Structure formats: C-alpha cells, structure tokens
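Supplementary Note 3. Input sequence used for the single-chain structure prediction.
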Amino acid sequence: MAAIAPAHVAAQENAPTAAQTAASSTDGEPAGIQEDAPPTFDEPERRDLSFKLKPGQSIDVDNPHGSVFVRFGGYEHTLDIRATIQQPKGAAQFAFAPGVQGGRFVIAPTLPGGGVRADGQRIDLVLYVPEKHALKVRTVDGGIESRGLKSDLDYATQTGNISARGTDGTIQAESVEGRIRISLNEGARPGSRQRFVTRTGDIVVGVTDGLNAEVTMATSGTMATDYSIAVEHRDQEEPSKRARAVVGAPQAGDSNAVVALESLRGNLQLWRRAVFSAVEGDQDEDAE
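The predicted structure, written as discrete structure tokens, is reproduced below.
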C-alpha cells in the first residue's frame, strides 16, 4: 500500500546562526531591524503502528497539528497508522500514543501542556481503516482526504479542505473556510441523511443517477448542477437561495434518503458522474 508522504521542510543551508544587524549610523540613526534565523529541523521521523480492533469498534482521530489521509485497510479488523513528524530542533516533542478510550479507538497527538506548535512543526497521519469501523476525524488547518472506505465517515475541520471518494457508507463533512469535494457511490442508504456544510468554502458533489436520493441545496453563492432544480429566493435571509433536486428514484416516507449541501456564501456544484458498463472482452480487466 502506497503511503502519502507530506512535504518535508528542509533546513536551509548556510542559514545565519545569529540575528543580523545593519551597520549602525555614526549620525545617531537607529540600527537596522534584526532578523531571526529560520528554524532548523531534525530529519522527519516516521512511525509505523498496527492495532487489532474489536469488530465494529469506532475510530476517533483528533489531529490539530497536521493533515489526515485515509485508505481502505481490508477486512481483518486491523488498523495501520503511518505518522510523519516534522520537528524543529529544540521544540517540544509530540505525545503520540493511540489506544482505546471509552470503548472507542482514539488517535490524538498532543503537545505537553496543550502547547502551541513551533513554526514548521507538524504531524501528518495516514490511516488504513478496515471495513465497518465508523471513522470520525477532526483537524484545525490540516486537510482530510479519504478514498475507497467501507465505513460511515464524519469529517470536520476549521480551515482545511475535505475530499472523499469511493465511500461505501454515509458521509458527514463540515469545513468553516475550506472546500469540500465528495464523490458519492450509487444507492444512498434508505433513510440516511448526509450533510456537507461550509461557511465560505465551495462544495462540489458528484453523483450517479442511481443515487436514489433527494438533494437539497442552500447558499447565498452560486448554484450549478446537471440536474433539474427549482430555486427559491429568500432575499432577506442568509443563505438567500434554496433548491431541491431528485436524483434517481428515492423511496417514500421515512425511507427517503437525503443529501444536503449547505453554505452561507460558498458556491455549490452538483454534477452527474457517468457510469461505464463492461463490454464483451473487458470482464477480466480491473476497474480503477
């Protein structure tokens, strides 16, 4: 399985080791402004960890110090974690000890005393999550990106971007300022509610005609879609526009599946993804 290696901030060669001061003036003019030397870094530290989960055990990730990337981890209830730590020389060390808390498996890197990261300091996580283990991820400015999971997902970040595709499960996603990009599989779970929310970030969702769900949209920004919608204008409210689309054949009553795109000012896009059928002679070829 290929790991995603976050970019390393290398130490600058020949960087000054002390503050540089402009030549002082003989006429009593103030000396030049001192400039701090850029931080130097240890080599990135890589940690590979593996944990056995109980069937159906939920996973909570709280990483305010970097990004989180997630891939499908198979069917054996084993969670693999690859952490990449970028550590400026002299900065406090991350405490990183994933484990069970209150029945949930918790991954939450911290700094001593809840301290603030030094410039350039971060820890990025790559998780390989087995099927049927609900996943919750929280970040501050780091991105959240997943592909091919077979679990229900709950993602939230302050300013990072969120991306999820190929998910066999429901998705909840919220970013205050970042953008959200979601690709939904066919056949939304009957009665499910999936919600994608931003304050200012754009939301882009790709679906197929087999989604079988009602899609609601609300924003003061623009709306664009491949599906027929009726837009309701509410000029004295924010968001000022609301719309609804029917994709496929949703079930009636409590079994109706709903997908909601909501933003105060971000732009909303709902696109139709084509579904390609295998033709004779292609059955043995792998599909991406």
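Confidence is low (pLDDT under 50) at residues 1-26, 282-288. Residues 150 and 168 are 4 Å apart (CA to CA).
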